[in-house]
Amino acid sequence: MPPYNIANPKNLQANIASRILVVDHNPIISFAIKKLLVHYPYINVAGQCHDEYEITATYKKLSPDIIIIDPMLSMANPTDIFQLVKRYSDKAKFIIYSNKNNILCASRYIDSGVKGIILKQSGVNDLLSGILSVSRGFTFMDKTLIPYASSQESMDNINAQPDTLTLPRISPREKQILSLITQGLKNKEIAEKLVISTKTVESHRLNLMKKLDAHSVVDLIKWAKHLNIQ
Question: Which residues pair with 27 in a beta bridge?
Answer without folding.
Answer: none
